[in-house]
């Protein structure tokens, strides 16, 4: 009853409510450059242990794959090379001994891919562009040049580095396309300059228009969009054409064996575990397993506004990811060649590139943590994650392909070919 009587006597007047506050300045001995250390410190023991668990898990995967590669190279491959190179006796020549294994496809192993050779070159060029951009960006961030306190610095560095790496992309695509004896070099260069960047820009422009229609402060201003177009057409495209010009001026890639005019027929049926679908799905599991723990923290930084500061861990996990992609692709490529299947170009790219598929599936699982209740959130999240997965697909696929190219050139240069 007392509370009711007090409430009845309260008068509410309509007017301006004035709020005041006081500011008390105190001198601090902490330097300005070190004032973010409280947010970026490694005092969180749980987070520290999780990062170290990720590193140990990744190192164990690399150790397992390294042992497999060593067993193949030291035992099986060395035995094959010795058997292929040894001098046959008269009795063996009389018996006309038929050899089996990867030596039989020496005249076809470097035959250009039968399907979509231009697309393959463009994918490899884009992969090299993304790989160099990511590597330089991680190195600069680990060295402390890109502070997480300034959220825009990392995105700006990625954009600028991606644009500047247009020359290696054009050079790689042109070199491969010339090696494949392609004639439409202008078309190949245009695809390299506009395919992946075009998809990214159109998607970003669509999302930005949707943000602007909703009145969101996250919409990018028109001047910033014009700046992106200027970087793309004024810097990236000319660099791609410059790299393509240098690539077409050089000699094609040389191979240790001569390719025959008539393609050899692949024995059928092939073992089920060497089918394209199975090797593609299996090839991405171990690379994904080497980086999925660190991927959780990266996604939390991107979508939940958490600070990500352990770029040293990122650099180490990135190296482990690249090494794992190369090793698993070499192992599966060796098994494929032993089965006398010489169509390894696209398969090498897809085997390691399938890591991006598992990243995309993991992002679907992670989306449940966001508790989204707007359809637009679904569009933004999955749209950007698909773009990121496409870039990762090109990056890991290019690493696997170049590892297999080095591997095949090495083993076929070690045998005697009649």
From TrEMBL:
One GO term of the biological process aspect: protein localization to membrane
Keywords: Membrane, Signal, Transmembrane, Transmembrane helix
Membrane listed as a keyword: yes
Membrane topology recorded in Swiss-Prot or TrEMBL: Multi-pass membrane protein
Location in or out of the cell: Membrane
Chief subcellular location: membrane
Protein name: Transmembrane 9 superfamily member
Species in which this protein is naturally found: Aureococcus anophagefferens
């Amino acid at each position: 009853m007392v509370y009711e009587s007090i409430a009845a006597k309260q008068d509410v007047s309509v007017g301006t409510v004035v709020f005041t506050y006081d500011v008390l300045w105190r001198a601090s001995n902490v330097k300005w450059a070190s004032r973010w250390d409280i947010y970026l410190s490694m005092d969180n023991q749980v987070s520290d242990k999780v990062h170290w668990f990720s590193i140990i898990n990744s190192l164990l995967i690399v150790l397992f794959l390294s042992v497999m590669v060593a067993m193949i190279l030291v035992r099986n491959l060395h035995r094959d090379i010795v058997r292929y190179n040894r001098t046959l006796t008269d009795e063996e020549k009389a018996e006309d001994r038929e050899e089996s294994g990867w030596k039989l496809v020496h005249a076809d192993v470097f035959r250009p891919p039968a399907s979509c050779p231009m697309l393959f070159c463009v994918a490899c060029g884009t992969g090299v562009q993304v790989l160099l951009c990511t590597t330089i960006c991680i190195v600069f961030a680990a060295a402390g040049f890109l502070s997480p306190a300034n959220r825009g610095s990392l995105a700006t560095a990625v954009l600028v580095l991606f644009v500047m790496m247009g020359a290696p992309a054009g050079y790689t695509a042109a070199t491969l396309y010339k090696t494949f004896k392609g004639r439409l070099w202008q078309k190949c260069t245009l695809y390299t300059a506009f395919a992946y960047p075009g998809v990214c820009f159109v998607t970003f422009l669509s999302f930005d228009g949707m943000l602007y229609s909703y009145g969101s402060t996250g919409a990018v201003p028109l001047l910033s969009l014009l700046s992106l177009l200027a970087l793309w057409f004024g810097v990236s495209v000319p660099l791609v054409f410059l790299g393509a010009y240098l690539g077409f001026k050089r000699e094609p890639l040389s191979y240790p064996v001569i390719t025959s005019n008539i393609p050899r027929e692949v024995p059928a049926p092939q073992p089920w575990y060497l089918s394209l679908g199975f090797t593609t799905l299996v090839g991405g599991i171990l690379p994904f397993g080497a980086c999925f723990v660190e991927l959780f923290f990266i996604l939390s930084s991107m979508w939940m506004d958490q600070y990500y500061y352990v770029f040293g861990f990122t650099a180490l996990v990135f190296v482990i990811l690249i090494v794992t992609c190369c090793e698993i692709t070499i192992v599966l490529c060796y098994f494929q060649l032993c089965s006398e299947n010489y169509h390894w170009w696209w398969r090498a790219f897809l085997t390691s590139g399938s890591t991006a598929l598992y990243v995309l599936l993991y992002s679907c699982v992670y989306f449940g943590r966001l508790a989204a209740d707007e359809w637009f959130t679904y569009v933004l999240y999955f749209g950007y994650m698909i773009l990121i997965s496409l870039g990762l697909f090109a990056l890991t696929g290019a690493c696997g392909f170049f590892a297999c190219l080095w591997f095949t050139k090495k083993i076929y240069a070690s045998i005697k070919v009649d």
